[in-house]
Amino acid sequence: MNLWMMVAILLAVCVIGLLLARFLFKTVGLRRGNALMVIGLSDSGKTCLFYKLKDGKVVNTHTSVKENYGKFVPKLIQGIPEKEIEVVDIPGHSRVRQQLINQYLPITKKIAYVLDASDFNASTNAEFLYDILTNRKLIDQYKPASFTIICNKADIAFYVKNHMKRELERELTTIHNTKKHQHQSIDEDVNIAPYPLMESKEFSFENWSAFRNIPINFEFCSVTKEKDETFIKMMENVVSDL
Are 139 and 209 in the same domain? Predict the structure, then answer.
């Protein structure tokens, strides 16, 4: 085997290795931490959930533009061994949330999006979810192990959960189509532009989950109830492998 053939083989191996590494990076992503990130619009119940996990009781909260962060052994969670978990509650104000989400993504393993089922606004929730579901850092670098959408204050559980899911999917389809035309009309750097939300004509959470290889599910509970068995069971599943 002559020198040039050896060089050609080495170059081919390097190229294949780089392509494989890029494929694995895109598919699996990098998980840099074990934290639970709690997000959602203001007054959806995020901070109440944070303190209920931390202290095991319902506390009065107020809207803030500062995140809550803590490491603690969660109260009320009986189905898992006692261990310290890491939780960050991101404020819902549009002026600060995206910056803080990107700041805490490197330590995040799971994401919980909380929405208020008693005062549900499909449009504003869908706008927030669109920014998350098309976030390049989340998809490429810090792919979460799971994404849970929590319908808080959902008393008629099955109907409420499925109704809100359909409404969100309808709104996300509309937002995607609008944004798609906007991106096509301007010369935008593909390396910083948001990822497309979907490949099909209509958005569904199931298709997005399969497309991005990130499990996504809907849950319902009432965070403000002192002892809500649905909340306890749901959070056992969410924090079990943090």
Answer: yes
How far apart are the C-alpha atoms of 55 and 171, rounded to whole Å? 36
Structure confidence by residue, pLDDT tens digits, 155-196: 655 667 788 999 999 999 999 999 877 655 555 555 556 778
Domain check: are 75 and 152 in the same one? yes
Same domain, yes or no, for 14 and 117?
no
**Structural tokens at position 23:** 């494929």
Range of the domain at 19: 1-30
Sign, Cα dihedral of 202, 205, 209, 214: positive
How many folded domains does the chain comprise?
A: 2
Residue bearing tokens 């080495």: 10
Rounded distance, CA 239 to CA 242, Å?
5
Residues 26 and 99 in one domain: no
Instruction: Answer yes or no: do 180 and 210 share one domain.
Output: yes
Q: Are residues 98 and 37 in the same domain?
A: yes
Where residue 61 sits, what CATH number does that domain have? 3.40.50.300
User: 36 and 85 in contact (C-beta within 8 Å)?
Assistant: yes
Tell me the pLDDT tens digit for each residue of 122-152.
Answer: 999 999 999 999 999 998 888 899 999 999 9
Quote the strand ranges of the chain, DSSP E: 35-40, 68-72, 85-89, 108-116, 146-152, 216-221
- pTM (2 d.p.): 0.82
- Please state, in angstroms and rounded to a whole number, the distance separating the CA atoms of residues 208 and 216: 9
| Rounded distance between C-alpha atoms, residue 161 and residue 172, angstroms | 16
pLDDT at residue 32, as a whole number: 59
60-64, 75-79, 191-195: which range is least confident on average?
191-195
Structure-token pair, residue 66:
């500062």
